Fold:
Amino acid sequence: LRDPRPNLGRTQWDADRLLQDLHNRKYFNQASSQGQPAADGDSPYAGWPPVLAELASVYASAPGDAGRSAPGAAALMSLSGLVDFLEEALLDRAVLPMGRMEALPTISQADIATAFEGGEGGGLQQQQQQQQQHMLLNGAALENLEVLENAEGGVGGTLLSVLDHCSTPFGRRRLRQWLCRPLYQVRDIELRQDAVSDLMTVAAESAGAARKNMSGISDLERAVARLAASTVEGAAGRDADHVVLYEDAARRKVKALTGAIRDLQAVSRAVRKFYPVLPWADGGGGGDEACISSKLLLKLFEQSRWSQIEAALDSLAQAANWSEAEKTGRVTPAEGVDTRNDAACKAVAQCQAALSAYLTQVRKQLGGGDKINYVVAASRDRLLEVPDSCKVTKEFTVDAGGKKGVKRYTTERLAQLSSELRDAEDEREAALSVVLQGMVRRFVEDRELWVRAVEAVAELDALMSLAAHALNAEGSVCRPKLLPPAQAQAVRGPPVFEAKGLRHPSGLPGLLGSFVPNDVSLGGPEHPAFIVLTGPNMGGKSTLLRQVCLAALLAQIGGCVPADSLTLSPVDAIFVRMGAKDHIMTGQSTFFVELAETAAMLHKATSRSLVALDELGRGTATLDGAAIASAVLHHMSGQIGCRGLFATHYHHLSSEHAQDPNVAIMHMACAVSGPQGQQHTPMEGEEEAGGGKEEVVPEVTFLYKLVPGACPKSYGTNVARLAGLPASVVSRAAHMSATTVSEPGAPTPMDVDEQQGYQKPQQQDGCALLGEDLKHAVAEVAKACATSNHKQSNADIEGGNGAGALSLDHLRVLQQQAQQLCGMQS
Structure:
């Protein structure tokens, strides 16, 4: 935002206040998934998540006001606002200690300064290359490439929808994280590639069986987090220690706990499906059967980890009858699990035994046999129901109520025993009321094991999804070959992107016909790193830009790419400028948004980045847009030296860079049929265009093939015809297009209107009123150009019908002559 106005709430976002609050409230004093408990004499940030501790240390060590500009200061200020919100919602104690904090991939301003100073051809230093772990993707790239969401807000046709074969919600969440943060280091990418390869071959059968076991698992990752948050020390609301839950709330919590245990058991069974192909497991490594060799998979199936997980699960499963608990909504612990409950149950049993013995004594005393029984009154007191035929002694006191033929009695001994039983049952209820919390705490004690299990299965599920995508893909897919930066520079020169038979990941045959594959080469010793791409409207330029970027992204998450082959130097960042949109609420016009996205490229792109610009400069006047496009292209290809594609309808850019060794001129091929440049006389009743002649619009067949050279025209009138514009409008547009040349400095459609008899408004500034001498000079220059030997070749004018048209060089000569005469007139 140009002038951001955040919702400040009741306090300002302040990093100093945040650090003070975190210390005073002691959120991280207990063990968490990322930190250790604070100890006396340790760093003031002991026990904090490592990323937060590092940011706080850097900020606190900065002198004076320098901390506000220190790296990470903005992140601390943002966290301050988040902590305030959580505190107001009474969730800070439950969320912050359990939260996972990670540093997002970025390129620092210091690295950018190094790039523009010329280090490594505009790149980062070797040390920074080794430190960077992920590719940088900003919001514009994710949106324009339709990685997670399409333009309509759905998922159809997105890269996520193509790759998503996950069986679990947390596996799907992990796949989304991979798409937003692709890997950068070659060794990490190759580990995933090896894992996907094993899941497609030696472990394919095991993966299929595991997916069936995992298909019914709920969101276990969030379930574990919620149960852990309910046990945090100092938690408020329904999770406080002193709170006793009523039946409905308790039933929901029991269901959450039993569901988590059941899902962890399913996870364990799914992992066991891989034991036959593990080298250390029973049945694995024997005979001639192949085993998993992927280091990543072997780490996920680490024997010691899963032995601990299975032992903890068995202990927890035997602690109660969980199937019964799920039905009744009440957890009854097994004997020996809860000492208080055991003592209460023993006291109840003793009281019941005493009552049974007393009943036997009364039966002998009164001689009524089995006809004498206990009945329970509303007050839970036991009464003796005695037949009228039995004679009682004075110790028996008759009680009101009863039925015909019997009377109800009580005694001092019976009242005492009933009271003892009632007290014992109350104690048992009190013990059972906290059993649920005790079971939850027991579950959370092994949280580290559960988190490790969920993390491993989430990664396994995402890897199996990549393998399923490769196995089910239509057409050929390949395992990309990754070149380490040092090797790429020594062997192949600049960073390279070389694809053979590349297709769009969402280009499914049969949807809209067969998808046309293309060979794309960027960088390396034999090809320029940048492509200026021209071609007809709807010719496939934007699709080509997207599929190149998506191929790099897909390669760096470890997946197979829809191509015959792909050789790639890792991309440190992808920047995309595509489409047209404005931000009304922030006062940003379409052109401003366009240039803001371009500015991000110019400031942050390095020699290892990949950029895609689609029709830059179309949001303003033609001259200004062409100038900006030319300057951006010059800076990208010349100073930064990154790999990229620049799709444009400014055809003079092709001429400007025709001899540029850093730029390749290419276009999307098309076949033009029908008479071009011919006219026919309108029939009676038809609207005349201009001087009574109607232009014939050529028909363009899109071939969607990337070929060398420049496309002479954009054939916009053909798209106008396809879009259903009225024939008279299309004809007039075609006539103007044929009469004028759409380049900066050329005659405008208003000039053509004047020649055809249309009224042209008077202009009073500049050199608009040049007089008859200038008009005569312009006509003479045009005539000379038309008859000169510098006519355009068939390669420059489609179909060979442009022999008498002015080329770009002719137009420049004409423009110079006009400027000279303009100076004379003034």
The first helix runs from residue 15 to 25. The first strand starts at residue 136 and ends at 137. The chain has 30 helices and 17 strands. The chain has a mean pLDDT of 77.
